[in-house]
C-alpha cells in the first residue's frame, strides 16, 4: 500500500454503511494519495447492506448474496484500506490521537471519523436479559447479520415456532414478514394505536394493518409489553402486557426503535446530546480533527435513521476532507421514505396530516385493495404526502415536496392520472437529481450516465450503481428510466434464466450438460462450466442439490459444497448445538420408539423435547460431537427435518378410528413417506393425507396433499402453503386408488425436482408453470414425458440411503468434531 510522504492517517471507527460510504466518496476524490486509511469494524465481515437483512430473513437472499455484501474483504485491500474486522473500538484518547480496541490493538490517527451507527433500543422489561446482561435465549434485536442468523436458525429448527415482534414500525413489520415467510406463527405488538405511526396517520395505519393481517400475522396495537416470560430452563414462553394479559411465543424480536451509539464519543469527552453533535462540515463540536457521520451524528438538533441523509453527509464530509470543496456544507435533509414494508409499497414525506385550519388536505383510501393516499398543501407548497399500495406518483410528489415543480390547481391530479401536470408525464421529464433509489443513494442522472457509458442490460446498470438492491421498491422506476435512457436499445438480460449466476445456462441446459459430460462434483462443474472457471460460493449449495438430484448416491460428495445442516444431517441452532428429528412414518409411533427417545433425552441431557407441527418429536440442544452416538442409541432413520428435501407426511387417523373417515389416510401417508423419504428437492417439500374433506391433517395447504372423497377416490392437491404465503393447493387430479396417488405423486415430485428454481417452493412453482400445463404433462401425458419421469423417480427411490448411517463411517475426520468458534475472531469480552 503506497502513500506519498505527506499522506496523513485517516481512521474510520465503524465499518457500516455510513463509514464505508464515506471512505468510498473519499477514494473517489483521490483520497488514496492523500490519506493512509484504516477502518475498525466490530463485525467479522466487509461492509454489507443492512436494508437487505429483511430479504435474508424472508429467504429471498443469502448471507453471502452479492446484493447484501456491498464491499467484500477484497475491496479493502484493492483500494489500499486497512480493515480491522471483528474488533471493537473501546476508548478514544483525543489528546494522544489514538483509539484502543477490545483486542488491545492501538491505532493512531491524524483525522478521525466516528461512524458507530446506532443500536437496537431494548426497553427495560423483566425477563429480557440474563443475570450477566446478555439477551435471554430466544430474544433478538434485528440490526445485524448475527441477529438475522440467530432468528433463521431458530425458525428452521422445527415446524411450529411462534414469535412475538415488539414494535410495529418499519423494522418490526419487516421482521414479522420475514419470520412469517419462514412458516412461523407471528404476532406484532405495538404500543401506539396504529402501525408505522411515525410515517402514517391513523387511517393509513388501519389500511396497512389489514394488509399485514392478510399475511397471517396477528396485530395487537395499544398494547405495552411489560415482561418476557421464560420457563425454569430459561427458554422464552411468551410475553405479558400492562393489562395482565399474555401471548405465547418461543421467540421475541425487539424492534422498538434505535438509539445512536455514542458510548465511545461520550467517554472521550466529545459533546453528545441525542447523538454526537456536529457542525455543517460534520466536524465534532470544539474539535479540529474529529468528525462524525451517519446515525450516530446529531446535526442542527436532528438525528437521522434513514440512509438517504447518510449518503448526503458522506458526500459533504468527503468534499471537506479531500479539499475537493472545503466550503461544502451539510444543511440537513428533507426526509422522504420510499420502501417496501412486508411486501407493501409505501412512500412518505413531510407531515402526515393538516396542522392548521388553512392546510389543504386531500385523502383517498380503499381498504379492499390496500390503497391509501394523502397530501397536505400549505400556502401553495406541498408539505406532506403519503402513498401506500399504489406509489406511482412518488417521483412527482418528491419533486413537488422539494419545490422543484409547480403544483397543479386540481390537487387530486397529484395522486391520480387525471389531468396530471406535464412534469409528471413520464420518466423523461424527471430531473436528473431525482433520487430514485433511497437505499443506495442513486439518482436518475446516475442511471442515465451508466447507460450512456456502455451498460447494456438492466442487470448491468443495477450491478454498477446498486440501484434496486435495497428494499426493491424502486425497481419499476429504475427499469423505466434505464429503458428510456437506452432509447429502445436495451438488451434482454440472459442471466435472468440461469440456474446459478456464474454458469450461463438454464436449469434444463445445465442438467443436460452435466449428464453429457458426466460431471459428478461441484468442483468439476465450476472448472468446466463456470465463467472463467471461477468458483462462486452462492452457487455451491444449489449445484450440490442438483448433482444429488441427477446422480443420487453416485454424486461426488465434497463437504465444502454443503451447508452445515447437510454435512452433519441435523439442524444447527443459535448456540451451535443441533436438533435431531427421527423419522415417524405418517406421524405414527410405538411405545418402543417413545422409550428410545426418552432414554436418549435423559442420557444426553437434551434441554428441550418438542412435538413438531409435522407430527414428529424434536430433540433440541445436542452437541455436534454427540450426534453419531445419539443416532446410534435411537436406532431410528433420519426424519430429514434439516435439508431441502421431502420432509414429512402428515396424516389423520382416517378409517382406522374416525367415524367420518372415507379412506385409510394413515396407511397411504406411511406408503408415501416410505416411497419418497429423503428425496433431494429444490426446496423443502411437505406432504399430508386427509381421510375426508374435513382436512384435519391440513392436506389442502401442503406442497402435495391428498384427500379421500369416498368410493375409493382421492383428490390430489399441489402447490399449497400455510406459511407467510397462505395458499390453497390446486386440484391436480382425482384418482381411483392409493397406488394411483403414489404414481402421480412421483411424477409431480420428479417434475418439480427437475424444473423448479433453487429454493422455489411449490406454491410459487405451480402458479409459474400453470395448473393446466401440469395436468397436460403429468395426467394426460400430452408430451410423452411420463415414462421418463417414472423411471427417474424410481432410480432416485432405489438410491435412498439413511444419512445417519454415516455415524459408523464419517465422510471426513472433522465431520462430527467440535467446530466452534466457526471464525478465528479476537477473544473479546461478551457484550
Automatic annotation (TrEMBL):
InterPro entries: BFD-like_2Fe2S-bd_dom, BFD-like_2Fe2S-bd_dom_sf, FAD/NAD-bd_sf, FAD/NAD-binding_dom, FAD/NAD-linked_Rdtase_dimer_sf, NasD-like, NiRdtase/SiRdtase_haem-b_fer, Nit/Sulf_reduc_fer-like_dom_sf
GO molecular function: 2 iron, 2 sulfur cluster binding; 4 iron, 4 sulfur cluster binding; flavin adenine dinucleotide binding; heme binding; metal ion binding; NADP binding; nitrite reductase activity; sulfite reductase (ferredoxin) activity
Pathway: Nitrogen metabolism; nitrate reduction (assimilation)
Catalytic activity: hydrogen sulfide + 6 oxidized [2Fe-2S]-[ferredoxin] + 3 H2O = sulfite + 6 reduced [2Fe-2S]-[ferredoxin] + 7 H(+)
Cofactors named for this entry: FAD; [4Fe-4S] cluster; [2Fe-2S] cluster; siroheme
Residue ranges annotated for the NADH-rubredoxin oxidoreductase C-terminal domain, each copy included: 337-398
Note on how the cofactor is bound: Binds 1 [4Fe-4S] cluster per subunit.
Every BFD-like [2Fe-2S]-binding domain range: 436-483
Principal EC category: oxidoreductase
Xref: PANTHER family: NITRITE REDUCTASE (NADH) LARGE SUBUNIT
Protein name, UniProt field: assimilatory sulfite reductase (ferredoxin)
Species, as recorded: Rhodococcus wratislaviensis
Lineage: Bacteria, Bacillati, Actinomycetota, Actinomycetes, Mycobacteriales
